[in-house]
UniProtKB/TrEMBL annotation, chain A:
Membrane topology: Multi-pass membrane protein
Entry keyword set: Cell inner membrane, Cell membrane, Membrane, Transmembrane, Transmembrane helix, Transport
Keyword Cell cycle included in the entry's annotation: no
Name of the molecule in the record: ABC transporter permease
One annotated GO molecular function: transmembrane transporter activity
Coarse class of the protein's main subcellular location: membrane
Length: 331, 495
């Protein structure tokens, strides 16, 4: 009997975030009849697509013990340059490629500062935040870029009934999941964030992997920039301020440990949806927008407390281990 | 001090079962037992960190209740923990008075008094330090000495020392033992916890053996011998502490020529043959770990040559070394060994991901199977493959890390202090594994500060002093005295 109980608690522990998500979904559905409409749910997914893509980049970094505070600014820079590129060349493909290139370049600078000059990631990316924002404002002379024409297809178009941003989000989710579960790089990230010294002594190329992480983050930031600007129908050099926090919030609520070494793609997705549902239900029920902020903050604190508590439970010393449990596992 | 009928349970585990234990005034009472036997739990109860489920503590035959370490202090009990608690960025005087800085009536810290007392203590103990010096600049043993000073400065009558020698050199151990003798003569009682049996027999007046949360036996140290204590600890008669077997020796696998790292080590020349267990002895700071780290690619080296299977190789990073089938188990398990929060399986497979992730996808079933096989072979005790490695005992962590390297099927295993901080049973298993490995035709290099295990297990021992190899001994020349002469630099041989 006690064994069954043990297994159950392990199940709950492993999937707690999805249980919270499901509970939230049901609660929202009960609270407001409009919540379950296809229109509303599509809307929720579309709204959180940019934040989720950013969250994946942050997740990879936080798992590896890094962070990116520059993503909002980099997103703005790659967004406005992408629009400018489209306006002068008329090529959507070229515009998207340029956005990605800008995102990657900015993050290469982050990576160089972090891996070669040992600047703490927090500080290095904080510097990039200011630089990228400045560059975006410099290029646009502080003016918003208008007349996006077909560029809006990224954020507002759809394939059949499915909006483009959602397609991007799904594809990036699959890519991230694949990276984390089916590549050596993904597995190495956990070791790097969990104990860098041990990772080095195990033969993992820590520097290379940190570069890869920032590059992937740059790709995601570039794509997010295009989606963001396209959705709001303008190139806003002052847009997406503080978006790094959106991404970090989603991934932390989704169970990524801020001290590194822990986090999953599906957890981050669930975290993004929990926040998305929360925003949506508060809007639908007409909660004051200032109150919304307070509630959101409280939820974040609550999620992290839960996470820490479950972790403390997990790290309790195993003093006595019966031999048969190990053999059972082997079977 | 005396405790009687102490019981303590943790969820699912009976940690202490009806413990009776007494310490005589002015004696050293050694507490022996494997990890998990309940030594630490008992000490934490005496120090007020845990509350016993039942039982009573007596001091001078008066029943007392100890609710927290501060109260324990007021009863004259001081504990020097295995992991020293200090703030590296703080000065000596701040650390010495941490948590009990003297204040005047307005709550202002009386720094003058702090300084005066600190200087007095430092002079008394002949420690050549400035009270303002930060603790991070001190050696581990001096920090330990400060901890002891701190304990005594509280006028402790009972000092608990948990593995006090696990991080200090032999010479520093002598200083510690002198201190202990001095404390004894002042009438202070000492509870001494150690895995190092030689030390226990040197200084203990009484020995109590704990096993699985019960007191097995208590004896005056003079009435009992080493083998009996070990047998009592593990609950069976240990046939031979060092399961050394004669193994045919083959060609040299690893050859090091004139290896040098400026300012760290130089003129390092040695070889290790197939089937050999080669030891590296020396005092702490002799450059043994640094040499091995360079061979393994963790640190750069400036000159010299490394040959594996007779072929010169250039080791720039750990991967190069692994690809040449040379692996190393670090002395610092926490820093360079385990990834604490990840599972035992991940910790074991981290260096062999190419075996489990190929063809564009991962193969978790193969991973589970192979890791499971090696865990069985190594006798790793873990509740499941998903258990976080930090939840395991030191010995089991070490076995997981050994399994990690065994997965790479290495030719040379460098084991740096492989038995540090693990219990007797696990030590024996590590020795047994070493024997297995050389029987399979592998080469083992063992760096150790425990001479008995080097003498017990090795075929040859190199001795290092101040970054150089000062001697090489064959098995028939082994003796602690000879090794120490080379290690201290009083004797030097051409190697």
């Amino acid at each position: 009997m006690s064994k069954g109980k043990f297994k159950n608690s392990k199940f709950v522990e492993k999937y707690s975030i999805f249980i919270v998500l499901l509970a939230m979904f049901i609660l929202c559905a009960v609270m407001n009849e409009n919540f379950l409409s296809v229109n509303n749910l599509t809307n929720v997914a579309r709204q959180l697509s940019v934040g989720t893509i950013i969250a994946y980049g942050e997740m990879l970094l936080v798992i590896a013990g890094l962070i990116d505070l520059s993503v909002g600014s980099v997103l703005a820079l790659s967004g406005v340059l992408s629009i400018a590129c489209y306006q002068s060349t008329g090529s959507l493909v070229l515009a998207l490629v340029l956005a990605v290139v800008i995102g990657v370049l900015c993050n290469l600078v982050n990576a160089v500062l972090v891996t070669h000059f040992d600047v703490p990631a927090f500080i290095a990316t904080l510097a990039m935040q200011t630089m990228a924002r400045g560059a975006a404002l410099l290029y646009t002379k502080g003016q918003n870029l208008l007349q996006l024409k077909d560029f809006t297809i990224f954020g507002q178009g759809s394939v059949g009934p499915i909006p483009m941003p959602i397609i991007f989000m799904v594809v990036i989710t699959i890519i991230t999941w694949y990276i984390m579960n089916h590549t050596r790089y993904g597995r190495s990230l956990y070791a790097i964030g969990g104990n860098e010294g041990a990772a080095i002594a195990s033969g993992i190329n820590v520097k290379k992997n940190k570069y890869i992480t920032y590059i992937i983050n740059g790709v995601f930031a570039g794509i997010a920039g295009v989606l963001f600007m396209s959705r709001v129908n303008a190139g806003l050099p002052n847009g997406a301020v503080g978006y790094e926090m959106e991404g970090l919030t989603a991934t932390i609520v989704g169970g990524t440990s801020f001290s590194g070494g822990v986090g999953t793609t599906m957890g981050t997705l669930a975290g993004a949806f929990i926040i998305g549902f929360l925003n949506n239900i508060m809007n639908l029920t007409g909660v004051d927008s200032y109150v919304q902020q307070i509630v959101k903050g409280a939820i974040i604190a609550f999620a992290v407390v839960l996470d820490i508590r479950s972790k403390n439970k997990k790290t309790r010393k195993v003093i006595l281990v019966a031999d048969d449990t190990k053999k059972e596992e082997a079977k | 001090m005396r405790v009687s009928g102490i019981n303590k349970s943790f969820p699912g585990v009976k940690a202490l079962d009806n413990i009776d234990f007494a310490v005589r005034k002015g004696t050293v009472h050694a507490l022996c037992g494997e990890n998990g036997a309940g030594k630490s739990t008992l000490m934490k109860i005496i120090n007020g960190l845990y509350k016993p489920d039942s039982g009573q503590i007596f001091i001078d035959e008066k029943p007392v209740e100890i609710k927290n370490p501060i109260q324990a202090q007021s009863y004259g009990i001081a504990m020097i923990a295995q992991e020293l608690n200090y703030v590296p960025e703080m000065s000596i005087e701040e650390n010495l008075f941490l948590g009990r800085l003297p204040v005047n009536k307005l709550g202002k810290i009386d720094w003058k008094k702090v300084r005066k007392e600190t200087v007095k203590f430092l002079e008394q103990e002949k420690l050549p330090y400035d009270p303002e010096q930060k603790l991070k600049t001190l050696t581990v043993s001096d920090i330990q000495m400060l901890e002891i000073i701190k304990a005594i400065s509280n006028n402790a009558d009972i000092v608990i020392m948990d593995e006090p020698t696990s991080a200090i050199t032999n010479r520093e151990v002598e200083v510690l033992f002198e201190k202990i003798a001095e404390l004894k003569s002042r009438g202070v009682s000492i509870i001494y916890i150690s895995h190092k049996m030689e030390e226990v027999f040197r200084i203990a007046d009484d020995i109590t053996v704990l096993r699985d949360g019960t007191v097995v036996e208590t004896h005056p140290a003079s009435d009992i011998d080493l083998d009996t204590v070990i047998a009592l600890m593990v609950g069976r008669k240990m046939e031979n502490v060092y399961p050394k077997e004669e193994v045919p020796v083959g060609d040299p696998i690893l050859e090091i020529k004139d290896l040098e790292s400026r300012g760290v080590f130089k003129d390092i020349n040695f070889y290790a043959k197939k089937g050999e267990i080669v030891g590296f002895a020396g005092l702490m700071g002799a450059g043994r770990t640094e040499t091995m780290r360079a061979i393994f690619g963790l640190d750069p080296y400036d000159g010299g040559e490394i040959k594996v299977h007779g072929k010169p190789v250039h080791i720039k990073k750990v991967r190069d070394s692994i690809n040449n089938k040379v692996v190393m188990l670090s002395e610092d398990r926490r820093r360079y060994g385990i990834v604490p929060i990840r599972s035992v399986m991940e910790n074991a497979s981290i260096s062999s991901l190419d075996k489990f992730i190929y063809g564009g996808r991962s193969h978790p079933r193969e991973e589970k199977k192979l890791v499971g096989e090696y865990f069985d072979k190594m006798n790793v005790k873990t509740p499941s493959l998903e258990t976080a490695i930090q939840a395991l005992s030191g010995g089991n962590q070490q076995k997981v890390l050994l399994a990690k390297w065994m997965l790479r099927d290495p030719d040379v295993l460098i084991l740096d202090e492989p038995t540090r901080g693990i219990d007797v049973g696990a030590k024996f298993e590590i020795y047994r594994l070493m024997t297995e490995l050389v029987k399979e035709g592998k080469t083992v290099i063992m760096v150790s500060s425990e001479l008995p295990e080097l003498i017990g297990m090795c075929d040859r021992i190199y001795v290092m002093n101040k970054g150089m190899i000062t001697g090489c001994l064959n098995r028939d020349e082994f003796s602690q005295e000879t090794i120490m002469r080379f290690a201290t630099g009083t004797e030097k041989a051409e190697v």
